[in-house]
Amino acid sequence: MVAPVPGLSINLATVRQQWNMREAAEACVRHGIHAISPWRDQVAAIGLDEAVRVVRDLNLQVTGLCRGGMFPAATAELRQAAIDENRRAIDEAAALKADCLVLVVGGLPGGTRDIEAARSMVRDGISTVLPHARAQGVKLAIEPLHPMYAADRSCVNTLAQALDMAGEIAPDVGVAIDTYHVWWEPNLAASIARAGRDGRIFAHHICDWLVPTKDLLLDRGMMGDGVIDLSGFRAMIEAAGYFGSHEVEIFSAQDWWTRDGDEVLRVCVERYQSLCAARV
Amino acid sequence: MVAPVPGLSINLATVRQQWNMREAAEACVRHGIHAISPWRDQVAAIGLDEAVRVVRDLNLQVTGLCRGGMFPAATAELRQAAIDENRRAIDEAAALKADCLVLVVGGLPGGTRDIEAARSMVRDGISTVLPHARAQGVKLAIEPLHPMYAADRSCVNTLAQALDMAGEIAPDVGVAIDTYHVWWEPNLAASIARAGRDGRIFAHHICDWLVPTKDLLLDRGMMGDGVIDLSGFRAMIEAAGYFGSHEVEIFSAQDWWTRDGDEVLRVCVERYQSLCAARV
User: Fold this and answer.
1) Does the predicted TM-score (pTM) go above 0.90?
2) What ipTM describes this predicted complex?
3) How far apart are CA A247 and CA A10, in angstroms?
């Protein structure tokens, strides 16, 4: 039996091309990884009941369910459909006992250009589903996404902005802090400290920014292969009082998604442990 | 003779594949455009003296020279070389009577990961060349670049951050506000208002954000083809007291750079005039 790797979680998007959710979860355990974060399509592919069995049978921590959100839409009907979809996502997160539901909040509704209107729709959407999340015991984590996704994925693009929005909604709405999305952010240390002080850090994702980045969506790097100061980031987030999981989330169509899944997990563990060692 | 198009400037990167600086400038005049902004390599290709003659002969406004900056470097020698290069850029801007020298400030020095250190090098670099710029009568405009360029082109990534930095350096350091780079920015209206109040808006660049964006650098859109609320942007910048030029700057390897240059300028004029009309 391989030694457990405390603090490491694998977002299953990282191995989505290699395995289904059960296969990926079993592979994680083989590598000493006892925390995962699945995507809803991965849950759906094996069925929610089977996904719950996987988590229970393998005694896994679920550090998040990806994803809710996508609130902005051009019509009231479509916005209501998004609300309904988020309620289903909350139910799934509850069934999986996920630490949080990660919210990728959505960008501009098709054909529109008013990003402040989109941001209002996000605020309204989260506020609307929050009572259901509370009733189900599910925490909602706004994930600020890199500004290059502002149009089509998320109109919340900095940690400071996500914290402002969470503050406007409720004390129990938090954030998911992903190194890839916010590493460049001005006043990052102050915003991370604020997130910790306010008890809003519900998840922490790690990967690296490659130079050059060849694709806006699917060219994220393995920790250590890019330019993000991941040790410094870890120091900031621990200084903010966060000692939860470090969840590796890598979209990489041309590289990591093409490799053997066991190799991917082996490298995730190595790089994560290097980061831990660098910290001491 | 075509009617002049007041307020429109063409950044000559927009037609860099079609023409040299003289050809591009003459084409602009053919289309009623009497303001340009050349890049230093375009000036160098015909020689500074000839570039000055082009501007004088055609009676052109030069809304900016692109670009100074690129201050961060791994060694003191390389940082000094960047300072020297910026002094030459200032001299060229003075010779061309450019409204400002646009600063693309630079990203992480190769092999480094400390973005705050890079930002300090930028502050130091601008402070160091500022006396020379003043002596030459050249205004320095920090251009915040989209965060997707934080690693390799600019560690100044929001207008708010650029204004903070300008404020730390001197009252006569300004900003170049490009719709492409800052359209997504939280609290954008407030930052633009602040820039105007502080007298720091030295240049304004326009183009559009395409969905999808296929390349991080060379897939910018013609005004109207993307998702930026350019009318709203214009309203914000005019509310801030800016009534200077609107400089079209489009890097577009697969589209506009492959078209006939006269077609590009014709469409620039059309779209710019549509924006002006929409404003009334």
Assistant:
1) yes
2) 0.96
3) 5
